Amino acid sequence: MLGRTAFLLLSVLLFANGCASVPPGVNSPLVLQWDKSKTPDSPFHLKGGPLDNATLVGIASVGPDDATWTVIFTRLEWFNNWPNGWTQATFLLDGTGVLRSDGNTWTLKIDKMPSLDVPESASIRYFDTYVRDEKGLAEFSHRWERIQAVTADLSIHKFQQLPDHKAFEQYMFPEVYGYSSPSQTGQDLVPVLGIEWNKKYTEGHFQERLWALRNSGSLYRDYQESPGLWYLAMAWAELAGPGKEIQVQIRK
Amino acid sequence: MPKGAIVLFMFLACLSLFGQDLITITFLDQDLGTPVEGVQVRIAGLKLVSDASGRVTFPQVTGTERVLLTALIPGYKIAKKVITAADRSITMKLSLEGTVEGQELVVRSTKPRQTDAQAGVSQVISSAQIQTQTMGLIEDAFSAVKTLPGVGYSGTFNARPSINGGDPNETVATLDGASILDPYQWQGAVTMFNPDMVDSIKLSNGIIGAQYGEVMSGLLEVTSKTPQDQDPHADIGLSTTGLDVFYQQAFAENAGILLGGKVTWLEMPLYLIGQSTLFSTAPNIRNGTAKVYWNPSPTVKWNLNANIDTDGVAIKLGSFAFDISDSQVLVSSDLKVLVNKDLLWNAMVSYNSLNNKTGFQGEDRFDSSLSQHSFTDLTDYRYQARSSFDWNLSEGQVISYGLDEMWETWSKTIDSLTYPNDSINDFTPKSNFSTVSGKNTIESGVYVNDAFTVIPGTLTGEGGLRVDHAVVFGGGEVLQTYPVLNPRIRMNWTFLKDWAGLKSLGVNGGTGLYSQFPADNPLLDNKYGVKSWEVGPTRAWFNVLGLDATGDGAETLSLQVYTKDYMNRFYSATEAGGDSILNYDGTGYAYGFNLGFKKNTLFWDVSLSYSFDETELYNPGRTGLVAEDWMSPLGSWYAPSYQVEHTFYLDLTLKPNQEFSFFMQGTLASGSPTESKGRTSWQYPIDLKADWHGFYPDSKVRWEFYAGCQDVLALLYFVRSTTGASFSTGFPIPSVGYKLSF
Fold first, then answer.
1. B715 interfacial to chain A (CB closer than 8 Å)
2. Under a CB-based contact definition with an 8 Å cutoff, are residues B475 and B220 in contact?
3. Residues on chain A touching B130 (C-beta within 8 angstroms)
4. pLDDT tens across A2-48, in order?
5. Do residues B388 and B401 touch, judged by C-beta distance below 8 A?
6. Do the first three CATH levels of B3-94 and B223-741 match, i.e. the same topology?
7. What stretch of H or E contains A3?
8. Quick check: B101 and A142 CB within 8 A?
9. Within an 8 Å CB–CB cutoff, is residue A143 touching chain B?
10. In this structure, is residue A236 part of a structural domain?
11. What is the dihedral sign for C-alpha B208, B209, B215, B221?
């Protein structure tokens, strides 16, 4: 009886864990929370879609008619938790766009794509330790810099479109998630905290400036603790390239 | 870009007014630290270029606006920074294009010096390790210490182990530097240290420095959490037996508070298992703790701790009655002042009161027609003061010197009628009634200690000398004791680094004298045969030789071999007339070795320890004296009741993913001595714990659920120990807990 109970308990726990890693809602619609009755300038929040855990904040100013609004993106707020902590960050933005309605739907056209280069503030909980203010910002900036360095290359050379979790994880960390093609076992392995990083794989798939970061497990830790940041970095360019029009749902 | 800011900046730039607030930005090369000339700066419509000193100056941002500064120069990465009204002077470091900041995001809180482990001397348990291992009826931070090398097996519900073969009373516990009269509750079953209040525990069982007095076989230094975050945080734990609530918050960058407590409600589980009438007062613990810290300047740190801890239990079954009632208050304050860059002054004062009442009444176990009883009432007040200096004489050389004073004033009443030799059918009753009040003991210590470095990172050591003295007064007499010198020296030699899979390999060794005076022994009186200037503290000569290895994968292996010789050990005996006397000519020895291995990975942690100990004591006695009980015989070598020859621990934590962990603690321990001069059988308790944790979606609230079972094999080998306070239940104890923290 006890054994059966324990087995059921374990099954529930492990099943629940499986449910916990749901890919970001790449295909879900972008939702604009906006009260446009507040003219001439009304703040808005853009959520959903590839933004996942992020919220794009800005101000919309009424244009020549009620169906055309000028949009200024002011910041991006990001929050992500994982089983042993969370990360919260704000990026300052300087992008612009135009929001138009054809009577039925609203579309957002980006004129000036804001860059995500400048985290303005960040705080981190890691187990029982909290890091805020300058230290939090510095540590988050380092992580963001590494992620950008990796994803910039991936977006060009590997994933022209946003990959699903499995494909991404198997490409980035096959030593953990399994090789998508026959593994290259017996290579030069670097053991770090129980994971043997494949140096040959690293050298064959990543730029030299990233080798040490990957073989030390730093990149894997970046992914473990904030997977959403990786997808944000890759989704950002895809979200709204200059001139691209995106359909959005309006909610008050 | 906010339009207001752009207009404002262009306007200010055009005016170029004298007296205008300016902001200066200096650009430096990240690697070289040299100024970078020619950096093109864009901010709020302005275009500027840095001068030869790498500087640009422009009007300060006003109001609540934030503007974005972009800096470009060929060969370097584009740098951007948010500028606010608070900024006056900023240094920006430019890194060469193509490099990635390799600093890993490894968040680790800064630990105070006393929590650092030292090879061959001390081992440190972190808050995370404590949280992993604690479970059961009472979540006790000490449960993580019990499995360290050198700690003998003491039982599932016994937090008073023998360390390196020493009497459990030879181990001293401190909370944030203040020594505690009685850190145990329920007569030693658990400690007062709640996992939610503890930041780390350091167990020193090697040659500890001369700073520490009144300790002979282990120093347990508990460091409480220091709130660092200005957002309020709470830890709430709900288990089958009680509730723990802790709150912490920093008020500013230099002050904070920690509040918390524990309340048990064993009445409920007892009712659920149909045992609500077993206890007349259900086992209970009520603990409260508070900590305030304030660092008024970077060179001054101040802490105030207050703890109130109570526990009790009572059973009444027919003619059998048993009750325990304890209460303790500990208030301490410590101050650290950095007098100058090389001199640190530490001061600490504390007040500690303890009231301990135990009572037993029932029939004799060998003759039910005889009734026996034993009541004890101890009230103890301890005042402690310490002042010391750490003088950083040169690089790698710290000389510490100071003095400490401890004043205990206490009273104790004992009323008993027992049949101490009933096991051999001798039913001669022994009656004992004594009441001692107004007794005082002052213990003083002065020391100098030198932590030195011969070859940085390779050959280090520590040597010192302390003098300890005690005087007993009150009750119409003054009992003088002779002072003792306690020299100590220890060396660490790391002779191999970065070779064949080893990060480091070193040996350590040391020798030292230690002493401990039984401050609240009611027999410390002329009328019990104790004479001034003839009596001194119990002493131990302790020798240690050790080896420490650290592998490339951060696995550690440690070996410690020790010997210990006791001198002037106290023991009591009974004269022909039935009166007790106190002797202090006991001797003894202990020797053994401790082996430890530890490895942590992302998916599993393992810790193995094996401790071997052989301890024998000798109480010479004299003609006309008889032993008070079987645990301290006269005229023959004997193994003390707490001695365990072999203790083997395995701690294994499996982490198949980030949300789930499975913890197993396996123990294999040889038995301890019994009244019949044999030993209890080997014991092999196994504790299991499954833990599931995470954060609620899109929130900062952490949850944790665990289910555990202590001593799952208890039914197979239940041995009712006859040594000291043993609370082995003889059956597995399941427990579940749910915790929230934010």
1. no
2. no
3. none
4. 344 443 344 344 433 333 333 445 566 788 888 777 666 788 898 88
5. yes
6. no
7. helix A2-20
8. yes
9. yes
10. yes
11. negative
What is the count of residue pairs from A and B with beta carbons less than 8 Å apart?
Answer: 120
Q: Which of B186, B196, B51, B84 is nearest to B131 (CA)?
A: B196
Specify the DSSP class assigned to residue B113. G
Residue A132 domain-assigned (yes or no) = yes
Q: How far apart are CA B306 and CA B291, in angstroms?
A: 6
Domain count, chain A: 1
Q: What residues does B432 pair with on adjacent strands?
A: B416
ipTM: 0.83
Q: Would you state the pLDDT for residue B259?
A: 97
Give residues 58 to 117 of A whose Cβ lies within 8 Å of B: 72, 74, 79, 81-86, 92, 94, 115, 117
- Token code pair at residue B627: 């032993």
Residues 6+ apart with CB under 8 A from A165: A21, A23, A227
Of A75, A111, A113, nearest in space to A92 by CA? A75
| Residue ranges making up the domain that contains A70 | 25-251
Q: Is residue A3 part of a domain?
A: no
B660 touches chain A (CB under 8 A): yes
Which residues in B17-101 belong to E strands, given as ranges?
Answer: 22-29, 40-43, 46-49, 55-59, 66-72, 79-84, 89-94
Instruction: Encode B170-187: b = buried (16+ Cβ within 10 Å), e = exposed.
Output: bbbbbbbbbbbbbbbbbb
At a CB cut-off of 8 Å and minimum separation 6, what does B153 contact?
B161, B644, B647, B667, B669, B683
Q: How do strand B459-474 and strand B430-455 relate by DSSP bridges?
A: antiparallel
pLDDT at position B436: 83
Segment B177-184 mean pLDDT: 93
Is 2.40.170.20 the CATH number for B223-741? yes
Which residues, in sequence order, are CB contacts of A171 under 8 Å at separation 6+? A154, A158, A159, A163, A180, A205
Q: How confident is the model at residue B150 (pLDDT cuts 50, 70, 90)?
A: very high
Q: Are B220 and B145 in contact (CB under 8 A)?
A: yes
What pTM was estimated for this model as a whole?
A: 0.81
Give backbone dihedrals phi and psi of A155, rounded to 5 degrees, phi first: -65, -30
Is B570 strand, coil or helix?
strand
Q: Do B78 and A117 touch (CB under 8 A)?
A: yes
Which residue matches tokens 């490895």? B599
Helix (H/G/I), strand (E/B), else coil: B161: coil
B522: helix, strand or coil: coil
Q: Token digits for B425? A: 């059918």
**Residue-wise pLDDT tens digits, B359-386:** 988 887 777 788 888 899 999 999 999 9
Residue A27: predicted pLDDT: 60
- First-last CA distance in chain B: 35
Q: Is the pLDDT of residue B648 over 60?
A: yes
- Residue B202: predicted pLDDT: 93
Rounded to an integer, what distance in angstroms lies between the CA atom of residue B613 and that of residue A36? 79
Return the CATH number of the domain spanning residue range B3-94: 2.60.40.10
Residue B2 carries which side chain, given as an amino acid letter? Answer: P
Q: Return residues 165-224 of A near B (CB < 8 Å).
A: 191-195, 209-210, 212-213, 216, 218, 221-222, 224
A146's tokens: 């590494």
Within 13 Å, how many C-alpha atoms sit on residue B660's CB side? 16
Where do the structural domains in chain B lie, given as residue ranges? 3-94, 223-741
B86 near A CB under 8 A:
no
B472-478: Cβ within 8 A, 24+ apart: B472/B439, B472/B440, B472/B441, B472/B524, B472/B525, B473/B440, B473/B442, B474/B409, B474/B438, B474/B439, B474/B440, B475/B436, B475/B437, B475/B438, B475/B439, B475/B525, B477/B525, B477/B526, B478/B532
Question: Which residue type is seen at B597?
Answer: F
Q: How far apart are CA B568 and CA B535, in angstroms?
A: 8
Task: Establish if A19 belongs to a structural domain.
Answer: no
Of B450, B453, B597, the closest CA to residue B148 belongs to: B597
